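Retro notes, structure queue

What went well: the backlog is down to a handful. What didn't: a couple of records were mislabeled last round, so from now on we paste the full input next to the output in the thread. Example, using Methyl-accepting chemotaxis protein from Spirochaeta africana:
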Amino acid sequence: MNFINKLRVVYQDSSVVIRNQVPGLFFSLVILLSLLPVLLVNELIQGDYLEFALEFTIFLLIGVALFQLFRGKYRSAVTIPIITSILAATALALVLTPQSSFQVYQVSLYMTVPLVLTVTISDSTWYPAGVAVSGVVVILLIAFTRIRPVLDGVEAEAFLERTVVPIALYGMASLLSLRISYGNIRSLQRTEAEHQHGLETIAKIAAIVQRSDENLNAARLLENDFQTILAGAERIATAVHALDDDAGTLQEGMSGANQAINTTNNLVEQFHHQVDEQNSVVLEATASVNQMSASLDNVADITSRKHTTAEKLLVEAEQGLRTMDDNNQAVQDMVKLANQLLEINTIISGIAEQTNILSMNAAIEAAHAGEAGRGFSVVAEEIRKLATSTSENSRIIAESIKQLSSGMEISQRSAAAMQHSFTAVVKEIREISAAFSEITNSTAELSQGGREILSAMQILQNSSTVIHDGSTNISTEQQNALQQFRHVESFVGQIGEASQRIQQALQSITEALESQRVLVSQSTRKSGELFSAVSQLAAQ
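Corresponding output:
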């Protein structure tokens, strides 16, 4: 086995025909070298020194051929034993004692040995063709120069017939050897082509592994994006909750302002009946108006800050909507990529089917070749197993890709629904911002009204003669202020309700995002399984 391994190393860069013929040539030469010493000893014992010299020369030539074989000189290693066998067969034919026309059969039998040898060790059809021509020439020469001259009578008359028959048989054997040699060479060449095709298929599978790895990385990035969106939704929920708390505080302040206005109205009504207490009442009313003005300024400041917060919330919501658009586009790209993988997998399945058909054809050719094709039949069976395994793996990959595509379609529909919900949230936030703007304007107007009331109270302090008219004006202004405060209180209630709706919408969005995140996680896991399956296929 060490000699065979050494020969494989020497001829590893040669053609597939030579690589497959080298072991047969080696064993043929070794067998000849093993048998010739026995013949040499036998010739010495019998005292036939001429045949001893001939056989010893053959022994040396076979040794030279074996030496050339290990040097990488395959042509020399093949040519030497073929020429030697032709010369040896010719020599055996020449030493025959001519007696009968049937000896032509014997000569043709001698020349069949080189023909069989060429089929076993040659890598080209030229060798069997050359040996066949040489054999025909030798048979004719021996028949007409050695056998025919000594024949007479019946033997001479039957000579031509008995010469044509062995030559015809030898010709048929030559054609058969040419067919076998040609079939072996073509089978080996097809095997080499199929081997190269298999290497190309492995390269394509490696490319699929790379693409699967890229898909897996994209799925992981998408999962991270969903985590970021969930965190943003939580921050929005916190901001809306704070907005709800501020609206409650504002509503409490508005209730206190309403009570103050009611108290002022009661005092103004008492002005008509308590003129003596006018100055003290005016002072108390002035203090109340100052408190009201401060409250209105505070309300205006709070509503201004909340309006700014609502604007920021609107910006964040619009940014989240754009992020969801990007994620939806990424999911669509993943669906397209999954379809491309399915098409590539279909191509791989078709290649596996063609490989299986080729292996069956190769097995049929090996069966036709008989004993000489037995080794190739094993190779064909292994190729068929590989094709079957590739087809099965391709089917598994197709199922995985279809599952992945189905999951991504579900993810795409969920993303579209979530995008619709988020659009509604943005619309609600815009309405909240507009409401805050109206509240700010209303509180500014109320603050201005409070200042006018304060000016009126100062006028009442300077002129007691116009107390009645001033108190009437104050009552009127207080009624207007009360209506304005009730309007503001209604707006505050609407803000609270809107905050509740936003919280509910954010809860729905959070649940939808969590569901989407689970789907993306499942998609990532499926991508990982696909990557592992394709990697195993590439390793096989």
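Agreed that this is the format going forward. Reviewer comment attached to the example: The chain has a mean pLDDT of 73.
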